[in-house]
Amino acid sequence: xxxxxxxxxxxxxxxxxxxxxxxxxxxxxxxxxxxxxxxxxxxxxxxxxxxxxxxxxxxxxxxxxxxxxxxxxxxxxxxxxxxxxxxxxxxxxxxxxxxxxxxxxxxxxxxxxxxxxxxxxxxxxxxxxxxxxxxxxxxxxxxxxxxxxxxxxxxxxxxxxxxxxxxxxxxxxxxxxxxxxxxxxxxxxxxxxxxxxxxxxxxxxxxxxxxxxxxxxxxxxxxxxxxxxxxxxxxxxxxxxxxxxxxxxxxxxxxxxxxxxxxxxxxxxxxxxxxxxxxxxxxxxxxxxxxxxxxxxxxxxxxxxxxxxxxxxxxxxxxxxxxxxxxxxxxxxxxxxxxxxxxxxxxxxxxxxxxxxxxxxxxxxxxxxxxxxxx
Length: 375
Ligand code: PLP
What we know:
Aspartate Aminotransferase, domain 1; seven-stranded mixed β-sheet; binds pyridoxal-5'-phosphate; Aspartate Aminotransferase, domain 2; single chain
């Protein structure tokens, strides 16, 4: 019987793959598994780097939530991205949105360009830019939407359509949206990537990543092989924590979005704010597209402080309830002067502050920002 999203999440971890009698799943710490002298592993398990009950369970869950046929869990979102790029061949050309997560851009610049990939960093908000960047050796288009931290929206229907016509693979980093708000595989993308460190884990207490595939094809088998032999896999405990986080994903996301909308509206009317970057505001250039491909605009937002870098840093220093910290998607609200973290080469504006809006009372969050924005 097919189940709806809330039901899948709420029951996550129940009746774990192991047939144990617990209502919630147990943690299987064993690194190796008994098998008899015939050489056949009778339980299906061999060695924990290859697979273990907690990982298998959470992979099945992620595949269900993203409408995929299979999922592979990794030790971080970056490890998941790394496996995708490693599955290509030197000489292949990759197109990525030029405002993608700084760590993914750095991985390409510092590791995969020297390794032999050709990479174009492109403004993918304009469909024409994608068309003009495609070359005969283009093997992959990597894209985030909404983007981190500028909250640009890229038309995933148009992107997938252009790529499919030319047999170019597409990977969508769905970390900001979560499967609750957006399902790129249903739009036609080949693979969805997540930093499960964020909303899926949901409590800022695990580091993880995942890839979810539309089809179990040869390319996917190669990625699976890389997962097994390169070994960037999550621990059983992290898989267990991720499963536990997913149990409350749906109601958490509802409240995250509700709070983010309230905070965005407050910032939008504040005289010390130059501009709010949030796809839930009708003034956002990606508003219509976001409405088409997302169920709600998410809970990440950025804003530009009037003045410049020093004014933005002053605001960041003045908040009391928001915590100055990187990362996102936990129950607690975080705030960050993003350019300081990304470094001087980053395309992020100097006066941009990024918020991960948490689950506190929206009034308290707004009062904190209002006090910090007062000169
Ligand atoms: N993708 C996005 C959009 C992110 O924000 C991050 C981390 O902040 C990553 C990927 C990388 O994930 P991780 O930190 O789990 O390696």
